[in-house]
What does this fold into?
Amino acid sequence: MTTDPFFHPVSGMDLPRFAGVPSFMRLPIVGPDHPRRAEVQIGIVGLPFDGAVSNRAGARHGPRALRDASTMLRAQNGATGVRPFEALACADLGDIGPNPVDVMDTLDRFETAFAGLAGEGIRPLTAGGDHLCTLPVLRGLRRGGLAQGPLGLIHFDSHTDLYPVYFGGRTLTHGNPFRVAVEEGLLDPARMVQIGIRGTTYDGADIDFARANGIRVIRAEEMFARGIPDVMAEAREIVGTAPCYLSYDIDFVDPSVAPGTGTPEWGGPIAREAIEVLRHLQGVEVLAADLVEVSPPFDPSGNTAWLGASLMFEILCAMV
It folds into this structure.
């Protein structure tokens, strides 16, 4: 438990939420040289990069929009009663700067940064950026020693991101982070579940890879037919009680609710269901997590970023 007010959000009763410099959830901004850095247990990090997007870019602006939207959040989860900022010391660690014109250099920069966080014992909650950003986070967790072996994965998305490398080259995209993570031994495919998959596809290469490696893919149609409680019970069984990673692509949500994303797919959950899936994670050890693919240019209303920030709060509650 942390009762130190330094690690608690600024209350809207003390300073209006529209005032002050925005930080994730109004938490203190704690840079690498901050005197209280060693006390941070969960660090919220921005990865403003979308150089691996194959079509509609814009997610590089996601972290800034999510930060601003998150100033609307308060300290207690009204449905579950969880008060995450009293459970663990949380802070905004700022953004990790990418190389906007070089994918592979950006991956190296991100991996090194997360290896450093892992070495400090800080569990990251990351705001993307496109979904390739997940790969260097996983690499960094392993390299820095926070992940001792292959992690399980709970993955909410409309796409599997298990495709081979595009265009016959070597440069990775947001369509293949989890394929590479399995191939590198960062994830245990027997403890992976992907939920909400839907939409048109190029071919069946991603599903073939999933079947060959024992990855459980739950399409959106199955999720709705069975119901969220039943599906999430299976997800908990698949990952078990060992550490896992949680990755949430905002395009898991139907674009009628969250249009601000680069690769929208119709037929997804509404906001209530998008939140509900995260409230069925009791007993799951979420070591680290991310919320990715929020692309503010496609949603001038800001609703997608506000939903994304709300989902990050639910994820944080699961982490603590």
Q: What stands out?
A: Residues 5-13+21-319 form a domain with the Arginase; Chain A fold (CATH 3.40.800.10).
